[in-house]
Amino acid sequence: MKNLVPKRVMEYIVITFAVILMDVGIYVFKFPNNFSFGGVSGMAVVFSHFIPMTSAQINLVINLILLVIGFMILGKDFGIKTAYVTVVSSLLLNVFEKVFPMEKALTGNIMLELCFAIILPALAAAILFFKNASGGGTDIVAMIIKKYSTMNISGALFLVDCFIVVVSFMVFDITTGLCSVLGLMAKTLLIDKSIERMKLNKYFTIISSKPEEISDFIMKDLNRSATIYHGEGVYTHKDKKIILTVVDVKQAVLLQRFIDEVDPQAFLMVTKSSEVIGKGFMSYI
């Protein structure tokens, strides 16, 4: 029980960082330029031209409605995390409006600001999905679609965000609409690649004359497990022990260094994998 508290605290520190990242991208770069490439923030940009409310206030109202739906369908743990994200994000946007009012775009360079409007929220969304949470809004809809279909998160997000982009053409000028299309495509791709990178592990096939030392290091120092196969060299016909193990990216560096120290003649095959399911690894199905 003692180990769970720091882990949960660290989890919410990471989630809070992602929220700040997302809100900076939305408030500083997305709202002033009327970029509407999906998400509740995109809806808020469009609706703020018809409703006497600020984008941040509309963002909060829509998020709360979708939050209730997501809580009922996706479960308690997801609901708590996403509720935290929704409340903190919405409050932060309102604080930004009071402390840093933005009457015009930050730089006036629409392409530069489009890049940051894409990168910051997309990276934040990937971090939140990795922590089994979301930025709220259409992310919740995407997670519901993912739960009841074989569609991945980026595909689901693309589906639910397309409508907002189409509306942006009707509400704003053609330049803003085209930027929104570009933003939607880039955001979808970036989220997909970011999630894949966060899930990345490395699969080792190790043929060594010192399998016991390497196995001990894997279990005791890396806190991972391994499987040993008995094989035979085709050329020498000598018995060989083959170690199979999966570690994360940081542990992979430590393992390679250790093997190089204890057995420089060892033969290694290292394969990248973003889909490792089992004890000690997260499930993304």
From TrEMBL:
Intracellular or extracellular location(s): Cell membrane
Superkingdom of source: Bacteria
Annotated DUF2179 domain residues: 224-278
Membrane topology value: Multi-pass membrane protein
Signal peptide residue numbers: none
The keyword Plastid is assigned to this record: no
Record field: transmembrane: 12-29, 49-71, 78-96, 108-130, 151-172
Key words, A-Z: Cell membrane, Membrane, Transmembrane, Transmembrane helix
Statement: the UniProt record of this protein carries the keyword Mitochondrion: no
Protein name: YitT family protein
